[in-house]
Amino acid sequence: MASRPHLIPITSSISLDERELEFNFIRAAGPGGQNVNKVATAVQLRFDAARSSRLPAAVRERLLNLAGRRATLEGVIVIAANRFRTQERNRSDAIERLVDLIRRATLVPKKRVPTRPSRSAKGKRLDSKRRRADVKGKRSVRSGDWD
């Protein structure tokens, strides 16, 4: 009997199939004493965002932009986690970071509406510039003032 895929919820409409995630365990630097030289506790999570069927196209595009240098040219997101001493905690940390990144990619940025300053705002700005120029102009030393 085939086991059901384990889904990782992202939003109410998006979830990831855990089979889309690839984990590599590598040796980590940092705390752990002699254990650090023997056990591969750091995790490298790889998620092929470009080929994921569970992500809408707009979310995929924003995700790859948000990922920055964590995304390869092929659209694979690579997250390295080595904060903890155990594989399991590093693995769940990497998944949490991926989920957070995808959640941020689901937020649609607000469209900027270009505006123009009103006529009175332009007038006020020019008046203040003129007043400031007059004040500074009165400070300057003109020829003949020292005679």
Describe the structure.
35% of the residues lie in helices and 17% in strands. It has 147 residues and is α+β, with helices and mostly antiparallel strands. The protein has a domain at 7-106: Double Stranded RNA Binding Domain. Helix 1 (57-67) crosses helix 2 (87-106).
CATH C-level class of the domain at 7-106 is Alpha Beta
CATH architecture of the domain at 7-106: 2-Layer Sandwich
Beta-sheet strand percentage?
Answer: 15-25%
CATH topology of the domain at 7-106: Double Stranded RNA Binding Domain
DSSP, total strands? 5
- The Rg value, from CA coordinates, equals 29 Å
SSE map:
Layout: E1 7-9, E2 15-17, E3 21-26, E4 42-48, H1 57-67, E5 76-81, H2 87-106, H3 119-139
Antiparallel strand pairs: 1-2, 3-4, 4-5
Helix pairs in contact: 1-2
Primary descriptors:
single chain; 147 residues; alpha+beta; Double Stranded RNA Binding Domain; three-stranded antiparallel β-sheet; two-stranded antiparallel ribbon
